[in-house]
Specification:
Layout: E1 2-6, H1 10-22, E2 26-30, H2 33-45, E3 52-56, H3 64-74, E4 79-84, H4 89-97, E5 100-104, H5 109-122
Parallel strand pairs: 1-2, 1-3, 3-4, 4-5
Helix pairs in contact: 2-3
Length: 131
């Protein structure tokens, strides 16, 4: 899969990138929502669209929910995962409203791999599973 991970925590960003790359995925990173949107648009223009957005909720500037909203509007077929340490029913419901999976931090990177496998098995479907 072609993936973009968005998180202002460089340690988390680099750890997830390394883990996903070990599984053979192509991984881009961004530390802000606006940077991620530009990268996603650039990939679409180049004919190599990204398959999955993994974004943190709390970031400076555009937060993860705003990013999900924008991506869902422009590229609704893109799989999306919201990761956050600030969970709760309202956050989960908002993520689900944008057809995004929801993962609470801290989590095992293998949980993200499981979610990605589910996305691949659905081949672009809109099914969203609860954790």
């Amino acid at each position: 899969m072609n993936i973009i991970i968005v998180d202002d925590d460089r340690g988390n960003l680099n750890a997830l990138k390394a883990h996903l790359a070990r599984y053979g995925h192509q991984v881009e990173t961004a530390d802000r929502g606006q940077t991620a949107l530009a990268a996603i648009a650039r990939a679409h223009r180049a004919g190599t669209p990204l398959d999955l957005l993994v974004t943190d909720l709390k970031m400076p500037g555009m937060d993860g929910m705003e990013l999900l909203r924008s991506v869902n509007t422009r590229w609704p077929q893109m799989a999306k995962v919201l990761m956050t340490a600030y969970g709760g029913h309202r956050i989960r419901a908002s993520a689900l409203s944008f057809s995004a999976e929801y993962i609470e931090k801290p989590f095992s990177p293998d949980l993200l791999i499981q979610k990605m496998e589910a996305f691949q098995n659905l081949k672009g479907g809109n099914h969203v599973e609860e954790i």
